[in-house]
Design brief:
The chain has 377 residues and is α/β, with parallel strands linked by helices. It has one domain: FAD/NAD(P)-binding domain. 28% of the residues lie in helices and 26% in strands. It is built from 8 helices and 20 strands. A 9-stranded mixed beta sheet has the order 3-18-14-17-16-15-5-7-6, with helices on both faces. A 6-stranded mixed beta sheet has the order 9-2-1-13-20-19, with helices on one face. β19 and β20 form a beta hairpin. α1 runs parallel beside α8, α2 crosses α5 and α2 crosses α8. The two termini are 14 Å apart. The chain binds flavin-adenine dinucleotide (FAD).
């Protein structure tokens, strides 16, 4: 069976790897960009051409407030799958994937409702996951880098949540999927189905690309923001809009706090992420387009606000220098919850795996499993 995947961000790449383990599939992944790569060492500022290249890779799973329904099921399936996926990929590619397994610390503030946290800890315990509530004394003991003042009221520690370098992960997925026989065509844009839709044909038999026509038995649209124009060509417009995020890499030159314990620290939606050698990622802004527009002018003052918030949490960061800053667009479904994992209405063989908004790295494994189950049921 011939399967085409449009888009090779973290979602398309994870689907490709997952499907590469199903016997009898002949899989081609197409992306209009070049293969994923790390930013140039000399760069001081960049705009990522896709969402994955801008992501921080924080996997807010156990620590999220979602406790039931589809959204929690997806998160849980992903964190479970990551436990096997990473060693599996590392075995195939023969190198390790940068991943922080020291957990996530979510700072608490005087205005927080502690009853809500206590109830989450109880729910997670019953679900088989571990969360700890720390008072300020414990927080200072384990993370002396965190500001010791009245504005922080302890923390929640989630030891089973991870942070993964999204570009390294995507590169590993591409390599492992290629090893399993998947063909990747980079620099090739999917233009739509061929011939363009006429009448009420319920199947897509071929796709048109900038390198010609490709016959398919299944088309999976994992094209992030590029999914909207593709669905429009299929006369089933799915509205996915951009939400800008800016972040930066700081260089302190030495680890904050305890060198042996370097978890992600998060508060008020600002993440401080250790990336090794005394460097930290700090981000990200959440910037919506003005009404009736898809253009989002980048606002440096918002990034400055994120930096100031990070310094308020960990004052030592004031001494750090900025190595580089970047921005990217998150694909957010308009008027419906993220993500969109479903059959495109009217087609029997076009699947959507898109609109992952702020959690695409987290949800990629569960998305891939869901797509596999929709195809092979
Ligand atoms: C600043 C920032 C921080 C973030 N932090 C996190 C985080 O901590 N944790 C987390 O889980 N998520 C995070 N995200 C969100 C995450 O990045 C996205 O949800 C995720 O990357 C979406 O992946 P994707 O593969 O669907 O989309 P993309 O990465 O955008 O990939 C889509 C691909 O499709 C290709 N494409 C589009 N149209 C076509 C076409 N017609 N033909 C061929 N190719 C096409 C594009 O070139 C692109 O490579 C963050 C995002 C940003 C911007």
């Amino acid at each position: 069976m011939k399967v085409a995947i449009a888009g090779c961000g973290v979602v398309g790449a994870t689907i490709a790897y997952e499907l590469s383990q199903v016997p009898g599939l002949n899989i081609t992944v197409l992306d209009r960009l070049d293969p994923p790569k790390f930013p140039d060492a000399a760069v001081t500022q960049f705009v990522s051409p896709n969402s994955t290249g801008a992501a921080l890779g924080v996997l807010m799973g156990v620590i999220s407030h979602k406790v039931k329904g589809k959204v929690w099921k997806l998160r849980q399936a992903s964190i479970q799958r990551y436990q096997t996926l990473l060693p599996e990929l590392e075995l195939i590619i023969g190198r390790s994937i940068p991943c922080n397994r020291q957990g996530i610390i979510s700072l608490c503030f005087p205005s927080d409702n502690f009853d809500r946290w206590e109830s989450l800890v109880e729910i997670r315990r019953n679900q088989g996951w571990n969360l700890e509530i720390w008072d300020n004394h414990q927080l200072q003991k384990f993370c002396p880098q965190v500001s010791n003042n009245n504005s922080i009221n302890g923390a929640i520690y989630s030891p089973q949540d991870y942070q993964i370098n999204p570009t390294a992960l995507t590169m590993a997925l591409v390599e492992a999927a290629s090893h399993n026989g998947v063909e990747f065509k980079f620099g090739v844009e999917v233009l739509g189905i061929a011939p363009p839709l006429s009448g009420i044909s319920p199947t897509c038999d071929a796709i048109e690309t900038t390198q010609g026509k490709i016959p398919v038995d299944y088309l999976i649209i994992a094209a992030g923001l590029g999914s909207s124009p593709l669905t429009a060509q299929l006369q089933q417009f799915v509205d996915i809009r951009p939400v800008l995020g800016q972040a930066l890499q700081l260089r302190l030159g030495h680890p904050l706090g305890n060198p042996g314990f370097q978890p992600v620290i998060t508060g008020n939606d600002v993440h401080i992420i250790p990336v090794g050698n005394g460097d930290y990622w700090v981000g990200a802004t959440v910037e919506f387009p003005p009404e009736n527009s898809r253009e989002i002018p980048s606002q440096p003052e918002l990034l400055q606000g994120v930096l100031e918030q990070a310094i308020a949490f960990c004052p030592e960061l004031a001494a750090a220098t900025t190595v580089y800053s970047w921005s990217g667009l998150r694909p957010r479904p308009e008027g419906r919850p993220a993500p969109i994992i479903e059959r495109l209405p009217r087609f029997t063989n076009v699947l959507l795996a898109t609109g992952h908004y702020r959690n695409g790295v987290l949800l990629a494994p569960a998305t891939a499993i869901a797509i596999r189950e929709m195809m092979i049921s």
